[in-house]
């Protein structure tokens, strides 16, 4: 495996981890929002 290929794979991995983190925090935010709305009803 060439050096550029492994660098590319690392970048890909970083991107997917960042996407997962983003999705997780959005889901967490949406859940908190729903919980907050339930409290105020």
Set down the secondary structure blueprint.
Elements: H1 3-40
Q: DSSP helix count?
A: 1
Helix and strand run: H
Mean pLDDT: 88
State the share of residues found in helices, binned by percent: over 70%
Task: Calculate the terminal CA-CA distance, rounded to whole Å.
Answer: 59 Å
The shape, in one word, is rod-shaped
Number of strands: 0
Poorly predicted regions? none
Q: Structural class of the helix and strand makeup?
A: mainly alpha
Proportion of strand residues: under 5%
The rounded Rg comes to 18 Å
- What characterizes the major β-sheet? none
Give an overview in words.
- The protein has 41 residues and is an all-alpha fold.
- The chain has one helix at residues 3-40.
- The N and C termini lie far apart (59 Å).
């Amino acid at each position: 495996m060439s050096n550029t290929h492994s660098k590319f794979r690392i970048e890909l991995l970083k991107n997917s981890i960042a996407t997962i983190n983003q999705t997780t925090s959005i889901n967490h935010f949406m859940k908190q929002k729903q919980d907050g709305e339930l409290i105020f009803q």
